[in-house]
Amino acid sequence: MNFPELEERDGLRWSALIWPWSRLEATRSVIPFAAMYTPLKNLQNMPPLLRYEPVNCKTCTTLLNPYCRIDPNQKIWMCPFCSGRNPIPPQYSEIAQNNLPAEQIFTTVEYMLPRPMAPPPAFVFVLDTCVSDAELRVAKESLMKAISLVPPETIVGLVSFGKNVNVHVLGFTDSVKSYVLRGDKDYTSQNIKDLLNLGIIGAQAVQGGQSVAVQGATRFLQPISECEFMFTSVLEDLDKDPWPVKQNQRPKRCNYTALSVAVALLESSYQGYGARVVALLGGPPTQDPGKVVKLELGDTLRSHADIERDYAPFYRKAVKAFDTIATRAVNAGHTIDVFSCSLDQVGLYEMRSCVDRTGGYFVTSEAFSHPMFKKSFEMFFKSNAEGKLSMGFQGSMEIHCSREIKIAGVIGPVASMNKSGSNVSQEVEYGIGGTNTWRMCSLDPSTTLSAYFEVVNQHSSAFREGQHRYVQFVTKYQHADGTYRCRVTTNAGLWTEGSNINQVRSSIDQEAAAVLVARLSVWKTENEEAFDILRWLDRKLIHMCSRFATFGETKEAFSLPVNLSLYPQFMFNLRRSQFLQVFNYSPDETAYYRSYLNRENTENALLMIQPTLISYNMSSPPAPALLDVSSIKPDSILLLDTFFYVIVFCGERIAQWRKAGYHEDPQYAALKALLEAPKDDAASIIEERFPYSRYIEADEKGSQARFLLAKLNPSISYNNEEQVGQQSLIYTDDASLQVFMDALKEQAQQSVQNS
Q1: Predicted confidence band at 214 (pLDDT cuts at 50, 70, 90)?
Q2: 546, 50 Cβ separation under 8 angstroms
Q3: Residue 349's closest CA among 403, 395, 383, 303?
Q4: Phi, psi of 56, deg, nearest 5
Q5: Beta carbons within 10 angstroms of residue 695's beta carbon
Q6: How confident is the model over 363-392, as pLDDT tens digits?
């Protein structure tokens, strides 16, 4: 079954297409019954925009879809979700079996709702000035590049901060002005509005020789077409934070207050309209509120061990402070994006709710001058073929489902709208549950959500052959062109009797199931205290294998069907990944990695869990290689793609030839072509990816080789003494995939015998 092809039809990938009828059998199947849904995926077979309001069922509010039965004679249509009967509206009076509207033909349609146009999107840039002069210059150049990329009608504002916060006035052309707020004070939203005179008439501006009153927030928020010169002038005059920094101390930074002011600026003027706060941070906050570290350089930033043992004195208070900003932004429907450029941590772990709950992006790099920041920042503001930003705003997603199932929750860049109903599970909650509607402050064509469901049919309830379950996703959002859209995706799936394991087994999508389990694992790790996630994963995998594998008298007779053959390997790599293993990773890195796992589509998320490896040599064309240490050969080059970084790894002999300069000799043109091929492929991968992946070149036995070795299966380690002299080895105590599979077969067989 071609699951990626099915995804191209509706943007949906289910963990299994056929579900067991009863709750008991669904529980025994172990895998979560859930879907990966990309609301704004670019679909080739979608009809043109429907420029009218959708028709909804009066009983359950689901929208008209291809699974509704039409009775043209009685002028009614029957809802498959609740079996309700609804009158056909007058505009559908000509409806017939040979004259159906688009929503009765296509499972995914998009409406352009007849509403007044929304104003252009707004961006408030928050710039950290506690960085070196060279770094600040690059950051300012990036901001000027950004305003040249977005449509000229886009609204922009600028807030800079160091020890204090400066809110720059863009509505005047006479001189450069700004309002200064103390960075060590916890202002309420109302305090900020009063201090900045937001919502009331401000000072006088001169336009065309006449004095004109400039209203509150419009002094700080202006269209690029009208304030580009002023915006550029402000940036040119902006210098490094003048507050002196003592030796052996960090600069005084008020990250929290700067973000709070930016959110308040948008709250007062853009409530309910598309807007983003884009923060460029160069270091951690060192002032309350939101402080994460002391000023003294001797005080290191908290580690995972510090947080776990409660040795991080500022952690809980900082998380609580940034949560209040996240709540305000969600209530206003605005997004917060964080671009952090520092060799040290900047407090992303504490402010992760600001990004994850509002649908924003984390981008991290070593410096503002690093290509990871510059390329990602440029791609962030990239416009589509129509000259509009490739992002939606003020979104919401509602899920409708038939009576046999209930909604357990959603994992992704969303926030609950606390709208409950009869289709919401009261017993099972995964991710953000207890509701059937979620707010998405922003979304784009790559934003992918995981929706989890619970089967509620009792084992004794009657089953009818050919019976279907129905799920409908209704996504409403503000398009970048100012129109309001509603995309509707309706899906029907088959039920089967619980005893019919073969049907369920053959319909499982192992890639989607692995990503859904990975997201669920991360959620459990972050939200359930004292939870042994590896033990939980192992139990789930053992039960899944005992349910769907076939067994014989020996371990070698154990086998899984083709569509599940790679699933144990995915779980093996997930157990070793940075999503669950925090050793040697900072809290900021963990927040960054988990954020993308919870928002990217199945293909990209699977790449994060199990990277791809391609081998290049002179005797054969490039070919996929096993993600194993045995793939390292002296005369080959490996290209590893982990989504977050791309590595070109040269074998020992190839590296020696390159260092000797043989590739520069025309008679060794083949060597030169071999060296360039993986670099060209790596460049093509990186150019299309957001965020821009880190590019690494490494040689066998070199220091950078650790990035590759950390991802390879340690089939040959220092424990395999008889093989050490033959191939490269990995110094690790981790079990190899073979040891893992042997233990899995043994445990699964025991589970079957004990049941």
Answers
A1: very low
A2: no
A3: 303
A4: -120, 155
A5: 16
A6: 999 999 999 999 999 999 998 888 899 999
